[in-house]
Specification:
Length: about 200
């Protein structure tokens, strides 16, 4: 069984972390996305029934599953509701991330990127930052991140800053990182920056 190089990806909301994660492991590595796993857990029967029982049918979408947008508005306005939802979902998300790490090891891939928004904040619970051999911070302009969130996610202006207020300050994440990748230019420039990180990681091994 091989031991892949595990890279944690840090950065603000809509900074391009998912894209950088894919570039870091291309062409045959493994990206573990906490957001994708959280969507799976949120849509599970167990969590759907808890949302229905606690918050009512108004928090369910047309498909009968929790409405992510409506839940997001609720939990970022109501700390008690946020704590409940995280208590229902976070243990299952952590378990699935651990299972996918094991899957990556069994598949003998060379690199794994952890695209986990609260990688540093919740390390006491999941321990994922401690298994990373490198942390990469994705730098992106705040106004550009806001524009992306409004356009691609349908968020209201100001929502990025409101949600990030619940997270570790970006400057602290930047300071904790081993490498900084700028996502303020073209895609080719971003690819070049990621290639430089991979070259540096290769020289360390």
């Amino acid at each position: 069984m091989g031991t892949p190089l595990v890279i944690g990806v840090l950065g603000g909301i809509a900074s391009g972390k998912s894209l950088v994660a894919r570039l870091l492991v291309a062409p045959d590595g493994f990206v573990i996305s906490a957001d994708e796993i959280a969507h799976e857990v949120l849509a599970s029967d167990a969590v759907t029934e808890r949302v229905r029982a606690e918050f009512g049918d108004a928090l369910l979408g047309p498909d009968g599953r929790p409405d992510r947008a409506a839940l997001g508005r609720l939990v970022f306005a109501d700390p008690a509701a946020r704590e409940k939802l995280e208590g229902w979902t976070h243990p299952a998300v952590r378990a699935r991330i651990g299972a996918r790490l094991e899957e990556a090891r069994r598949a003998n891939v060379t690199r794994v990127a952890l695209d986990v928004p609260l990688l540093l904040e919740n390390d006491d619970q999941h321990g994922l930052a401690r298994v990373c051999e490198a942390l990469v911070f994705v730098e992106s302009d705040a106004q550009e991140r806001e524009r992306r969130a409004v356009q691609s996610r349908g968020w209201e202006p100001g929502e990025v800053a409101r949600r990030e207020a619940f997270q570790m300050p970006l400057e602290e994440k930047r300071e904790r990182a081993d490498y900084i990748v700028s996502n303020t230019g073209t895609l080719d420039e971003l690819k070049h920056a990621v290639a430089e990180v991979l070259a540096a990681l290769s020289s360390r091994s």
